[in-house]
């Protein structure tokens, strides 16, 4: 157990699997107490907690389906109670906005208004509201990391709505980095490329092989490789980085 984040607390949204789970594990290994957020799958979130505790770390779950009415209040009610139970006070040092809704891969003309609203509600509106609410808990020198996407830097028409929502998240990073600098709170985006998040799709050769070719290394990324970047941004070593969009695509954007 590394102690770089000893005494720190963190909330990782969407941390029941994939990049979120790897990030929660990584932060816990550095000594942070981690609030593991889930939208619907409480059992998977508990599995993340179990993995953290087996590794010698500390964690607890918080559940709320982001993008739905009352979700932010629901999440923070649980978060503040959990923080007080484990530390005696409601202080949140690190916020990682990882939870996201994805598009089904439809052509732009086939996307419904309801799909558009849902994706923006989860990917752009919820992170804004989460940060807004977290500012009352974040101390001087806090950390905010937003998980964006490589699709904001390349043209994939079937992912246009997802890319638009993540582009909005990058704008949130940029403007809040300036706004929160007086409090020494850093705000950064991490841009993953094609990453094997354990979903069934990535086990299909017809999907896995072409996606692997996007990277300069000709393979899919692993969740831990993205998580390592996030964890770095959460430490004091990254205190001089803010407003940045870090390419974590394995060279997929080299052209």
TrEMBL record:
It comes from the Bacteria. SUPFAM superfamilies: NAD(P)-binding Rossmann-fold domains. InterPro entries: NAD(P)-bd_dom_sf, Sc_DH/Rdtase_CS, SDR_fam. Keywords: Oxidoreductase. The keyword Signal does not apply. The keyword Signal does not apply. Belongs to the short-chain dehydrogenases/reductases (SDR) family. This is SDR family oxidoreductase. It comes from Streptomyces olindensis. The lineage of its organism: Bacteria, Bacillati, Actinomycetota, Actinomycetes, Kitasatosporales.
């Amino acid at each position: 157990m590394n102690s770089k984040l000893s005494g720190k607390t963190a909330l990782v949204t969407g941390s029941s699997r994939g990049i979120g789970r790897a990030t929660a594990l990584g932060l816990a290994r550095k000594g942070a107490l981690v609030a593991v957020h889930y939208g619907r799958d409480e059992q998977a979130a508990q599995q993340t907690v179990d993995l953290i505790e087996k590794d010698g770390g500390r964690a607890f779950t918080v559940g709320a389906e982001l993008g739905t009415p009352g979700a932010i209040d629901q999440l923070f009610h649980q978060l503040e109670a959990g923080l007080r139970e484990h530390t005696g006070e409601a202080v949140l040092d690190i916020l990682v906005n990882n939870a996201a809704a994805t598009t089904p891969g439809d052509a732009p003309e086939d996307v419904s208004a309801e799909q558009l609203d849902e994706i923006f509600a989860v990917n752009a509106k919820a992170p804004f509201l989460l940060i807004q609410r977290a500012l009352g808990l974040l101390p001087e020198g806090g950390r905010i990391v937003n998980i964006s996407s490589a699709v904001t830097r390349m043209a994939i028409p079937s992912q246009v709505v997802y890319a638009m929502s993540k582009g909005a998240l990058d704008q949130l990073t940029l403007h809040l980095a300036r706004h929160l600098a007086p409090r020494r709170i850093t705000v950064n985006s991490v841009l993953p490329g094609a990453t094997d998040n354990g979903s069934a799709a990535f086990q299909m050769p017809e999907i896995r092989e072409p996606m692997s070719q996007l990277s300069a290394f000709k393979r899919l990324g692993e969740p831990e490789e993205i998580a390592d970047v996030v964890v770095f941004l959460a430490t004091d070593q990254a205190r001089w980085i803010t407003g940045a969009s870090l390419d974590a695509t394995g060279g997929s954007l080299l052209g």
